């Protein structure tokens, strides 16, 4: 179908519209009963025009949307593009899109916006199946949105780069997508005869059928990153109510969600004590457990952790769910833990092994790919402590060099080669987590280099506690 036709009615189409309008007036004239066939023609024509208008609207929406691909080996920053049929637009070439420079195809898969729990679960299951069916392909996160209404139009999906040695990638991809309900959009991307890049929109209804074809136009990175804007409400929670809404929505299929929600009610409202609350944060193998135990002993303090014991038994279950559900579980864990902290602070100082900063830092680092330059800017509101969550008196962040971390992990007896591969693969991720920790505000993290012997680290921690807390 020519999308130009449905988006811009022709003179003949306008005549049809006028005729239908006149016909409707005649049929509605008192005393005119009309003929059955004439009535059928009227409603049939009106229905057809309505379908055309819907198709035109869908086509216009498709052409006005922007696609954003997470950083990858071809682009250290998110990659933005849109589609256009205008002859004067500066279309992209393989120089702008090196992933297609040697020929071949790329694909985008977008999941239509819907109920967020259902959509998040579909996104997770689809991503897993794509990885299984296209094991040699690079599968990147993608979002599609309308610049005029990012929150209301944002759709998540995947950008798929099959290897040149996989000529049947599109066939495999279509086979996967046909298993899923309507609301999944597939586009393919290829180089044209004049070295321009083309996007083809496909309809999946018992088979794959090309329905539209547009040239691809690169878009400059927007001032406000859609990846950052998509974090709130889909990855991070800044109120107990929002996190509970997610678990309530999925409680019919995850019985443990009801148990977690039941644990929330007895802990409200909070009544904080007079003793200080100190949170210890840091990556794995930075010495958190050793330091928290030492502080507990030296300060005669209560030692708590997140998620709290009353819901930690279901941690494995929620870790296997979509990111939305998993993060809602950890967010609620912080609020349940806050009630335990408030109660314990009435009788002694409280040491907390990880709290909200940990949840936030790992979430931000996971949602934002590439290097630390892709993280939200300093003082962005994603780094702000939730207003309805108990605020600690002090947050200490332990840091060590990568070399020291590797040394400590090896001492734990883990398989050396496996850990080396994971450390190498996750180098940028670790940097993003640590940098996100450092950008947290209200309260900010006070940093301690945990590379020296623990006795030295303990004395530095005690000095910070004495300086910032009434103890």
TrEMBL record:
Thymidylate kinase-like domain mapped to chain residues: 280-459
Alphabetical keyword list: ATP-binding, Coiled coil, Kinase, Mitochondrion, Nucleotide biosynthesis, Nucleotide-binding, Pyrimidine biosynthesis, Transferase, Transit peptide
Example of a GO biological process term: dTDP biosynthetic process
UniProt-annotated location(s): Mitochondrion
Any Pfam family matching the protein: Thymidylate_kin
GO CC term (a single one): mitochondrion
Gene3D superfamilies per record: P-loop containing nucleotide triphosphate hydrolases
InterPro entries named in the record: P-loop_NTPase, Thymidylate_kin-like_dom, Thymidylate_kinase
Known catalytic reactions: CMP + ATP = CDP + ADP; dTMP + ATP = dTDP + ADP; dCMP + ATP = dCDP + ADP
EC number: 2.7.4.14, 2.7.4.9
Coarse class of the protein's main subcellular location: mitochondrion
SUPFAM superfamilies: P-loop containing nucleoside triphosphate hydrolases
Domain of life: Eukaryota
Molecular function via GO: ATP binding; dTMP kinase activity; nucleoside diphosphate kinase activity
Family per record: Belongs to the thymidylate kinase family.
Protein name per its UniProtKB record: UMP-CMP kinase 2, mitochondrial
Organism, scientific name: Eleutherodactylus coqui
């Amino acid at each position: 179908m020519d999308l130009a036709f449905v988006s811009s009615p022709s003179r003949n189409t306008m005549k049809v519209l006028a005729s239908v309008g006149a016909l409707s007036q005649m049929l509605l004239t008192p005393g005119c009963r009309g003929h059955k066939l004439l009535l059928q023609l009227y409603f049939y024509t009106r229905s057809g025009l309505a379908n055309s208008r819907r198709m035109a609207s869908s086509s216009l929406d498709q052409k006005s949307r922007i696609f954003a691909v997470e950083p990858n080996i071809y682009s250290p920053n998110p990659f933005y593009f849109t589609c256009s049929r205008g002859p004067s637009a500066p279309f992209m070439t393989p120089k702008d899109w090196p992933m297609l420079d040697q020929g071949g195809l790329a694909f985008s898969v977008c999941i239509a916006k819907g109920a967020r729990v259902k959509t998040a679960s579909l996104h997770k299951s689809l991503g897993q199946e794509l990885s299984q069916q296209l094991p040699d392909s690079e599968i990147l996160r993608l979002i599609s949105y309308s610049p005029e209404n990012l929150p209301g139009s944002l759709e998540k999906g995947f950008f798929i780069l099959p290897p040149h040695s996989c000529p049947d990638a599109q066939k495999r991809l279509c086979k996967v997508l046909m298993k899923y309900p309507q609301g999944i959009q597939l586009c393919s991307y290829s180089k044209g005869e004049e070295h321009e890049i083309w996007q083809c929109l496909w309809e999946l209804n018992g088979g794959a059928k090309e329905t539209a074809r547009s040239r691809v136009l690169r878009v400059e990175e927007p001032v406000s990153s859609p990846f950052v804007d998509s974090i709130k409400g889909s990855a991070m929670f800044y109120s107990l109510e929002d996190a509970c809404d997610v678990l309530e929505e999925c409680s019919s299929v995850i019985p443990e969600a009801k148990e977690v929600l039941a644990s929330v009610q007895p802990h409200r409202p909070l009544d904080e004590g007079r003793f200080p609350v100190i949170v210890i944060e840091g990556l794995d193998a930075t010495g958190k457990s050793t330091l928290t135990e030492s502080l507990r002993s030296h300060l005669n303090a209560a030692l708590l952790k997140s998620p709290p014991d009353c819901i930690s038994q279901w941690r494995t279950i929620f870790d296997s769910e979509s990111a939305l559900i998993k993060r809602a579980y950890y967010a609620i864990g912080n609020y349940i833990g806050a009630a335990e902290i408030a109660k314990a602070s009435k009788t002694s100082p409280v040491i907390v092994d990880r709290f909200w900063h940990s949840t936030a830092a790992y979430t931000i680092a996971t949602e934002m790919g590439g290097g630390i330059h892709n993280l939200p800017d300093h003082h962005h509101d994603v780094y702000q402590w939730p207003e309805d969550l108990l605020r600690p008196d002090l947050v200490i962040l332990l840091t060590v060099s990568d070399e020291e971390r590797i040394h400590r992990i090896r001492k734990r007896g883990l398989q050396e080669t496996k850990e080396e591969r994971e450390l190498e693969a996750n180098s940028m991720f670790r940097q993003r987590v640590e940098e996100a920790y450092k950008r947290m505000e209200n309260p900010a993290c006070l940093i301690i280099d945990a590379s020296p012997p623990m006795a030295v680290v303990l004395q530095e921690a005690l000095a910070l506690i004495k300086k910032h807390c009434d103890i």
